[in-house]
């Protein structure tokens, strides 16, 4: 992740990596955005400079990243279209007062994102959209969302700094869901699409699951659950590669 301040050359529109670009694409036109864990504020500044959003609240739990965000906003001339809040998750944001419509939580672990979503009542308000990009443990995040009544409306796969990530678009509807283990890990929406990133993404996860099985076997631990997950991923990959590009061949 690039933490350098914006240079004059990209003053008005910071370049977004694939992950943040995918997150930005899920933000609605004219949204009022909260960017939780904003760090450099690249995402809200890009959205403002693209004319996509009305206002952004940038928050961070740490003082230094928030100062970085303020400096970048001033350099880009957007200080009057942004607020900056030092807080944990949405705890100090007063989202009702600000009329936040779209909440971004990107660049943290899946469990931390789940905690941040779960600790705020506001994330369950009808019409409020959450755009989430876990750097790790996406299965834990999807499990939390499924159990807690959040519908995953869509997902996108993205590449950044040689790694692949899923970006989730979700909204609360109160219905509990029971995804399969592979759906938790890879995302049902991603499995259902023909994104060229899907096969390398799923193969990477398959390799991790296989390494985990090997490690557990060597440690004399049970591997049944991971083997079921491995077999499910293999089955999905087999289907996807039926004709080499993710579609089944015509009979
Ligand atoms: C890796 S950076 C991600 C920056 C940006 N969102 C992105 O995706 O590129 C993670 C940021 O989240 C902040 N953070 C970590 N835990 C947090 C929490 N509980 N609430 C708010 N911010 C948090 C960190 O201080 C850090 O600035």
Structure description:
The protein is an alpha/beta fold. The protein has 2 domains: 8-178, Vaccinia Virus protein VP39 (Rossmann fold); 179-251. The protein has 10 helices and 7 strands. It has helices at residues 18-26, 42-49, 63-76, 95-98, 110-119, 138-147, 181-186, 188-191, 198-218, 224-240; strands spanning 31-36, 53-60, 82-86, 102-109, 129-136, 150-160, 163-172. The protein has a 7-stranded mixed β-sheet, sandwiched between helices. α1 (18-26) crosses α2 (42-49). The longest helix has 21 residues, at 198-218. S-adenosylmethionine binds at residues 1, 20, 36-39, 59-62, 65, 88-89, 106-108, 112, 116.
Q: What does the secondary structure layout of this molecule look like, with pairings?
A:
Elements: H1 18-26, E1 31-36, H2 42-49, E2 53-60, H3 63-76, E3 82-86, H4 95-98, E4 102-109, H5 110-119, E5 129-136, H6 138-147, E6 150-160, E7 163-172, H7 181-186, H8 188-191, H9 198-218, H10 224-240
Parallel strand pairs: 1-2, 1-4, 2-3, 4-5
Antiparallel strand pairs: 5-7, 6-7
Helix pairs in contact: 1-2, 5-6, 9-10
Bound molecules: S-adenosylmethionine (SAM).
Structural class: alpha/beta
Q: Give the distinct bound molecules.
A: S-adenosylmethionine
CATH architecture of the largest domain: 3-Layer(aba) Sandwich
CATH class of the largest domain: Alpha Beta
Low-confidence stretches: 1-10, 246-251
| CATH level-four homologous superfamily name of the largest domain | Vaccinia Virus protein VP39
Multimerization status: single chain
Number of strands: 7
Largest sheet: 7 strands, mixed
